[in-house]
UniProtKB/TrEMBL annotation:
Organism the protein comes from: Candidatus Yonathbacteria bacterium RIFOXYD1_FULL_52_36
Name of this chain's protein: phenylalanine--tRNA ligase
Catalytic activity field: tRNA(Phe) + L-phenylalanine + ATP = L-phenylalanyl-tRNA(Phe) + AMP + diphosphate + H(+)
A Pfam family hit: tRNA-synt_2d
Domain Aminoacyl-transfer RNA synthetases class-II family profile span(s) in chain numbering: 16-223
GO function term, MF aspect, one: tRNA binding
Top-level EC class: ligase
Gene3D superfamilies: Bira Bifunctional Protein, Domain 2
Length: 244
């Protein structure tokens, strides 16, 4: 018999990304996409992040040389604006994709990583819908014994804004070195879409409301499989990827 070439398989990030997207599709979400090379307007201004506002510093940006006001998108949130401008509410979308930040890498930070964004706009949308949707999602992804917790936080494009924590994968909530004793790990930013952002998307904030969320897919994969360094996922080391 002819020797067979070893079979390839999907990368762990692709696996978790596809699983996450299909869990949202089961809940009625559509999938949307946008460009990785993005205008400063969509990446920042339209999301209620003014030019000299300190919150711009939260996301170190790669600017495109020789092309003014153009960036490698620092998050998937600009797709919120692009989608709102071209669709009538009500709608519910998720946006998987690559994002880029000009920052030093460490065990939890890469310069290129993946995010999953969500946006739901309708007439009577509340924070309770956000919580219910994410609770369902994380229970399906990590098991029925998973709990979520919302903590007040700030993102210019939401009001109120929250940070979403899930039960620690290692200690299951009792407290350990991974979750620094809290029993929870932070996984996402989220909140109620800011009225200015709805307006920039061409949606009347007096009629419609929305919730949005955005999380790191690499971190979802790390939590799912207990991987303690994000850089392992991009190392190309077959001893790592062949375990999935
Ligand atoms: C917040 C509110 C919304 O209504 C919608 C979206 C968001 C999220 C916002 N756009 C954002 O990017 N927030 S963030 O800077 O805190 O990043 C979100 C997630 O990306 C983090 O929780 C983390 O999981 C991941 N992340 C951030 N920097 C990273 C990273 N993952 C790997 N490497 C990095 N350098």
């Amino acid at each position: 018999m002819e020797p067979q070439a070893p079979k390839g398989h999907l990368h762990p990030i692709t696996l978790v990304l596809r699983e996450a997207v299909s869990l949202f599709v089961e809940m009625g979400f559509e999938v949307a996409q946008g460009p990785e090379i993005e205008s400063e307007y969509h990446n920042f201004d339209a999301l209620n992040v003014p030019k000299d506002h300190p919150s711009r510093d939260m996301q170190d940006t790669f600017w495109i040389k020789g092309v003014p006001e153009t960036v490698l998108r620092t998050h998937t949130s600009p797709v919120q604006i692009r989608y709102m401008k071209t669709h009538e509410p009500p709608f519910a979308i998720v946006v998987p994709g690559k994002v880029f930040r000009n920052e030093a890498t460490d065990a939890t930070h890469e310069a290129q990583f993946h995010q999953l964004e969500g946006l739901v706009v309708g007439k009577d949308i509340s924070l309770a819908h956000l919580k219910g949707t994410l609770d369902r999602f994380f229970k399906k992804l990590y098991g029925e014994d998973t709990a979520i917790r919302l903590r007040p936080s700030f993102f210019p494009f939401v009001e109120p804004g929250v940070e979403v924590d899930v039960t620690c994968f290692k200690c299951k909530g009792s407290g350990c070195n991974v979750c620094k004793g809290s029993g929870f790990i932070e996984v996402m930013g989220a909140g109620m879409v800011h009225p200015n952002v709805l307006s920039h998307g061409g949606i009347d904030p007096n009629v419609y409301r929305g919730f949005a969320f955005g999380g790191g897919v690499d971190r979802l994969a790390m939590l799912k499989w207990g991987i303690d360094d994000v850089r392992l996922l991009y190392s190309g080391d077959l001893r790592v990827v062949n375990q999935f």
